[in-house]
Amino acid sequence: MMALATLRERWASFAGGFAVLLLGMTMVSMSALALASAGARVPDRLAGAPVFVTVPMAERGDGNFAPDRPWPPRTVASLRERLAAIPGVAHAVADRTFYAQPVVAGRPVAQERGYAWSAARLAPYRLTAGAAPGDGEVALDRSLGLAPGTPVPVLTVHGPVTYIVSGTVDGPGVYLGDAEAERLSAGVRAIGLVTGPGADTGAVAAAARTVAGTAGVVRTGQERAVLEPRDHERTRWIGAQVLTGMTALSAFTSVLVVGSAFAVGVAQRRREFGLLRAVGATPRQVRRMVYGEALAVGVTATAAGVAAGALLGPVLGDVLVTAGFEPPGFTVRLSPAPLAASFAAGVLVTLAGVGTASRRAARVRPLEALREAEVDDRPLPRVRWVTGAACCALGLVAAAGAARSGGSDPFVMPGLVAAMGVMAGLALLSPAVVPPVTRLVTWPLTRGRGATGMLVRQNALTAVRRTAATATPVLLTVGCAVLITGLVQTTAAGFALARATAVRAGAVIVPDGTPGLTDAAASAAGARSSLFTALYDAGGTPLSAIGATPELLERAGDTRVVSGSLDALRRADQILVAGWLAAGRGLRPGSVLPVTFEDGTSASLTVGGVLGGADADVLLSRDLLRRHDPVVLAAQAYVTGTPAPPGPGARVTGVAAYAAEADAEEDRLVWIATLLLVAVSTVYAGVAIVNTMVMSAAGRARDLTVLRLSGASGRQVLTTVAAESALVVTLGTALGVLVALPALHGVRRAFATAMRADVPLVIPWPLIGTLAAACLFLAACAAVLAARPATRHAAGR
Questions:
Q1: Which is nearest to 113 in space by CA: 174, 185, 49?
Q2: H/E element, 554
Q3: Coiled-coil segments, which residues (predicted)?
Q4: What is the pTM (predicted TM-score) of this model?
Q5: Of the residues 55, 211, 306, 529, which has the fewest C-beta atoms closer than 10 A?
Q6: d(Cα 788, Cα 697) in Å, to the nearest integer?
Q7: Number of separate helices (H) and strands (E) present in the chain
Q8: Best CA proximity match to 32, nearest among 323, 250, 233
Q9: Is omega for the bond preceding 314 within 30 degrees of 0, making it cis?
Q10: Which segments of the chain have a pLDDT < 50?
Q11: For 294-319, how does the pLDDT look when each residue is reduced to its tens digit (9 = 90+)?
Q12: Which of 660, 546, 541 is nearest to 614 (CA)?
């Protein structure tokens, strides 16, 4: 019987570690494959040109998606002429893009990119019906179902224009004649070289380098992937952050849970290790045995997890595209390097997780084999006391720093450090913290008459480490969920409130099925809109720019003038600069700033004033910006009076609704990423809870049998076990909420100061309640199912 019990305990500890590693390495391998597959790729519409000449691209920091300075118009014409003369080049095509969105059945369709007809050669896309577009004509994707000769309204940056469909092509896009496309597009950043039959691509590329000189960079093969749209690059970057976070969380949590599983297993096998020591086993041999057992489990579980990750990788790719974390066309490709790295990571996670447990097993003395009663009275190790106290102290110091922040200093990171530090400290000190909290929570049970309440209380106080091992994952999961979701929801509400407070307008015109507002859509409603784009300084560094009028800035609430006057925006040769740009470059009213516009032309503009808290580096006349950037769309337009019906692709909304919807897409992505992280941590917490309950049941089978033989019915025993689980989960939930709320309040107060508004604290309590209920359900079910065999065995005696 003793051998059978030992095998049961050993299997319980192995099963818990196996489940955690299987889950963790599945996630790690899927994420690794997705990250390896997430590189830039050559856009389909440019895949037919083997050689491209692009503008020199500046080095950009991580998360910077600013565009590069376009060529001047004269440079474009000169390069095209000389590149077209290279032997083997059939066409040198300037890649011009602009906004063009057909309106079919009264609604703008999803295709919103316009190109010159000559750019169809770069794919190459071919006519499936009709002819190439001429003046007043357009060629469209055949999937739209419009036959040649059909009139179709097309939204352009200036407003709707009715074109006649000249033909249909076998690819997406809106194609206009080259002359009209040049009028609607901004600067050119790439020229594609379409080669003739039998042309030597290497020779063409070498000749192109000679022609381009320092004015351009020649790209061939996979190098052409730098031509992917900036929005796709940004989407890939967001996806990489999400995947990296999930991978790091999976690996980190796997180490903790594997370590916890083997630590509980070692605690329950102390008598076995004592017998080994009594018959002559050295501490080194015991430690080696534990490592060997862990490696056997780890290698098997990691291999299974890596195999599962390889099978589920394509499914993850589809989920990422659907959620908006990867651009359309992204697929997860199988690759041996990520899978090998995931396998190595699994082995390292196993070794890291079992290290502490192996040292604890080696310290078991031979006399442990003679112990009949196993009372969990071992003191907390000194190192754990010191580390836990240090983490709590660090968290409290960070909390004080966040509370003292006046909104001018970063306050989110101190708040996160505060909560995470206290949570980590409580997790380390949980064997010391749980008993007094348990006594406080279960004090009403001592006043009752029933034996169940007393048993629940005493069992929780006697088996301190088992109680702490179950409460800790709940504490971490609930605490992290309250902290992260509360922070995301509170900041979103704060930005919406600040935006609603700042806007001084009666209504707002916003896009409806379009990426932005055309000039006609805003003016039809009696509104004017500011334009957000980029300028480039003399060195080619991008500067964010807003084209506006003094009236527009006043409606938007952006009127904090440090020096000069907003009236500078009424002149085409003057600009306003943000305070940080003025301080960094020594600019003041009267200074001259040379800039290049989006169409490639250059000018020297005079600084007419300095703004504090501006939303861009440079502010200039809206009319001046529109003349030099014919493609930018407005994000919104403000109306002071009663708005008239807007033009196509726009709708009227209230200020409060606009403030809530302004960052809807970004908020959606952030919320999905948050839910993914919470879901991953919850799954691991569930595995840890189930594992702890199963291992505990294996170790306390004798106690449950004695309780059953003492006269308790099987139902009463199982009710007691379930009540113990509910108590432990309640303790973890309460501690998690209590740890996270103070840090959130500190962040909210500092954020309210920064936003100059009374920002509410928003916590998704239904989500938190669902997480706590899920932990409770798993704990109760696992405890009851694991304890049932012991009650049946006792009943059969």
A1: 174
A2: helix 550-556
A3: none
A4: 0.78
A5: 211
A6: 9
A7: 22, 23
A8: 250
A9: no
A10: 1-7, 372-373, 375, 406-409
A11: 888 888 988 999 999 999 989 888 88
A12: 546
